[in-house]
Every structure is written in C-alpha cells, then in structure tokens.
Target: ABC transport system ATP-binding protein
Amino acid sequence: MCLIELVNITKVYRGKNVETKVFEGISFEIHVGDYIGLYGRSGSGKSTLLHILGLLDRPSSGTVKFKGTDIGQIKAHQFSQIRNEHIGFVFQDFRLIDELTIFENVEIPLILSKQKCSKAVREQKVMAVLSKLDIQDKRNSYPQELSGGQKQRVAIARALVNEPSLILADEPTGNLDEQAARNTMQILSELNKEGTTIIIVTHDPEVKKYTDKVIDMREIVAQM
Ligand SMILES: Nc1ncnc2c1ncn2[C@@H]1O[C@H](COP(=O)(O)OP(=O)(O)OP(=O)(O)O)[C@@H](O)[C@H]1O
Model:
C-alpha cells in the first residue's frame, strides 16, 4: 500500500540574489512498512526531500499525496494536522525542550493533537512509550541530566507517542557513540518490524545494514 507518492516534484529555493534548484521532476513512492535509507553528500538535498516527505515544506511544483490525499489541495491547518497525527520526527540534535521534564517532552504531541485526550490517557500513553524505550525511570529528569543515547530514546518516544504511520529520522545516530548508535538503530528496526514506516537520512554507511531500501540522491538528481 502506498503511503506517500511524489509525482514530478521540483524544488527551487529563491533567495534575494540566488536561485538554487535542488531537484527537478522526481517521482517515487514510499510504501507502508518500508525501511528506507536516504543517502547523499552534503548539500545534495536530503533535508529538503525529508522536509517535503514530512509535510514540513511543499515542493515548488509537482504532486505529493499522503495516504491518497493530494496535500497541494488542502489548507495549511489540515497540512499541519496530518503531519501531527501521522508523522514522528527524530533529529540528530534530539530537539528536546530543556525546560520540560522527560515526561512533559514526550507529552507534547498529545497536547498538540487535535484528537484531545484526557490527562489520565496522556499519562498512560506517555508511560507506555517511555517503558517501551526503557527510559521510564527518567520521567522526572530534565534533558540535560541524560546521556546522548538516553536523549535520543526520549526523542524516539516523543516521535512514537501519537502512534504515527511514518517516522522520519534525520541523522539520528550523528551525535551518538558507537554503542548508543547501534542501540538506536535496533530500536528503529524493532519499530519497523512492528509496522512503522521509517525513513532515515544518513551519511553513516553502518545504517545500510539495517535499512531495506536505499534512496540515493545521486540517482534522484540523475533523473533530472
Ligand atoms: N532555506 C533555503 N534557502 C535557500 N537555499 C537552501 C535552503 N535550504 C537548503 N538550501 C540549498 O539547497 C541545497 C540542498 O540543501 P539540503 O539542506 O537539502 O542538503 P543536505 O543533503 O541535507 O545537506 P547536509 O547533509 O549538509 O545537511 C543546498 O544547495 C542548500 O544550499
């Protein structure tokens, strides 16, 4: 089943003096259950593509369909609603909020979700993902009190709490030592086995051992 369909996508950044065409006329599909590594050299457009797949940005032209819905045809608030409910993000620098506890950080997507749930349900959902990621004992700690690997587990818990169809991970192992990186990749593999579609942007060749498919930016640009 097709989760995301990109048809004839072009992305051009128009600055004051410079116009950068990142890619032109690319088409491909992401299927439910895919575990994809997105590779390419620095500046090749990986983040740009990830932002389009994650509904953080729109292409300059072409069609993006998410679960069959043409996202070019929907209003801005629906666009962010689909993103909130269906997509979880994991970043290299974790992006946890320092002023909030681990519990509160993981609770954020539930508070932002349009499908409001009670405090008791939020508590139950947050504790379930914290336990799944084996970080429940840190619920009252603050991000700066955790190791890099623990922070990334919290970030994965936050990405998961809304039970998204898709997880997009931008260099998730980039700030981790070898052990924590392996642990993070094992967690993502488990989630994929449980049915979550995952796309990982990476420079790390080790990640290829885990993913099932590769999107190489060189091939995408070669389509142009
Ligand atoms: N907001 C922007 N405005 C103008 N140009 C941009 C913008 N964002 C990215 N670019 C340009 O688009 C191209 C692709 O950038 P992008 O960040 O997608 O690459 P990347 O493959 O993710 O790189 P890296 O691995 O270094 O993060 C680059 O030439 C970059 O300068």
In short: The first helix runs from residue 46 to 53. The first strand starts at residue 2 and ends at 14.
